[in-house]
Amino acid sequence: MYNNITTFIHNLFGTDEFVPLHAPLFIGNEKKYLAECIDTTFVSSVGKFVDRFEEQVACYTGSKRAVVCVSGTNALHMGMLLVGVER
Question: Are 80 and 69 in contact (CB under 8 A)?
């Protein structure tokens, strides 16, 4: 799976050089989708784009389901709870 991600990034940016972590890259309908989210007030953790993303992640990873999180910290906390880690 990691090789696929690495290949995707190399192909997308067309370089083996440093790729900025948070530099925006608009190559499709991103601006249109963002405007739609803002117009419909679905800009957080609900809405059709969230549902679609979860479905695509589940499909890509071969999982029954996927859940998006608001932050990496939230994802780690949820993961630790799911595997039974306690304080």
Answer: no
d(CA 87, CA 84) in angstroms, rounded, equals 10
Nearest to 30 by CA among 6, 13, 56, 49: 49
Task: Give the pLDDT confidence of 22-38 residue by residue, as tens digits.
Answer: 778 788 898 898 888 88
Q: Positive or negative CA dihedral for 70, 80, 51, 5?
A: positive
pTM above 0.90, yes or no: no
Burial of 13 (0-12, 13-18, 19+ CB in 10 A): middle
Q: Please give the Cα distance from 77 to 87 (Å, whole number).
A: 11
Compute the radius of gyration of the chain from its Cα atoms. 16
Distance CA 87, CA 27 (A): 44
> What phi and psi values does residue 36 have, to the nearest 5 degrees?
-65, -40
